Amino acid sequence: MGDEVNRTGYGRTQRQLYRRKIQQCLDVFEAMLAQSDFDCAQPLTGMEIEGNLIDGDYRPAMSNSDVLATIDDPAYQRELGAYNIEFNVPPRPLCGRSGLEWEAEVRSSLNAAEAKARADGARIVMIGILPTLMPEHLAKDWMSDSARYAALNDSIFAARGEELAIEIDGPEPLSLYAATIAPESACTSMQLHLQVSPAQFADHWNAAQVLAGPQLALGANSPYVFGHRLWSETRVELFAQSTDTRPDELKNQGVRPRVWFGERWITSIFDLFEENVRYFPSLLPEVSDEDPAAELAQGRTPQLAELRLHNGTVYRWNRPVYDVVDGRPHLRVENRVLPSGPTVADMLANAVFYYGLLRSLAHQRRPLWSQMSFAAAHANFRAAARHGIDARLYWPELGEVSVAELTRRELLPMARRGLDEWGVAAEVSDRFLGIIEGRVAAGRNGATWQVSTVRALQAQGMSPPDALTEMLRRYCAQMHTNQPVHTWQLS
To answer: What confidence tier does 14 reach under pLDDT thresholds 50, 70, 90?
Structure first.
């Protein structure tokens, strides 16, 4: 959920002090990149999984405080909406059979959390956007009890000066106004972390940007918002619009959005933090007591609290992370592209596929990003959000190709090579890459299953709201089998 804050309002003096402090943090961070010892001897992978709470009627259950108290596990935390929770999976190396152990542990933990949630009359569902969520559910008492979220809401609307306009095209276009950032809470995702060295960060971030389009196309799972069928991964556009601090006039001037793909390949992690400070005003100008320059001069590791807090309010799809654990600094690439769900097996397949591809791409002699424009990578991402597994994407030496052809010809072999380099056991690669291969062969991911099921139910005479509810009921039942979504029945 990000670091908590101590207040919900900030004055002019506070903002001026914050601006000076964050520039000091940036200067110290630049010095650290040149001289500090970052922890990267054994790169770790990590995962965060966001979920929705639903009641017995498959409507959102605004009860995360009670459910989290019952779960009573620090790995589970609040998210923006009172019907959202997040599971922070402990980090680990990827080598050997750890992928299979990871799957078993994640499933065991989620099942235990589900059992406890049921004691509070709730269930947990992993899905990109809850299809039974309607605007009336977000009219009141929708936000988690958190000063951070209240402050974020107030700061976004202070910057905008007007209500949010949500306008998304698609088969059933959506148009509405929102007086809070509540629509953002509809967007639930999984985040993948990889610890890297300062020298290797740029190659890994660039590679992750190249992969964002294919990743999203294969993993799309958010076709419905507020009863409207829109994009295969509508979460991308809904998230962008529901956190937009820019009124139309600033959009017309070309001011950058806070949900940002970026605009160029980088040569250092410093490029990203420098852009954050240069382009984006602070939303949460909390000032700590730390003197980062003095800490570094005395041989200690500065927390750089202001830089980290600000970074958490610039919503890059691949976010740079600076963190300190047991007094040692480290860097991570946080991949925020994928939606949650449908099953643990699907999410682990997405993760293993991504890590294998990232390893291969980041170590190529002739980097793929030197063969394609940044604009092409962004266009792939947008096409994947709209069309999902049916998208056509650009790839060097292939031109514009289908997701299926790209995955079979390039991505699956590349992922397997990368997993071999990680030292991943063959049975792990076979299981999870086999799921990706099956998904492509069937032409079915979470988004296509949802749409096909709703269509079939409506063809049988169900009203749209009833069809969405019945689809979600079937989704939940299949989710608990842990059978990959491409094997799910459609009727």
So the answer is: confident
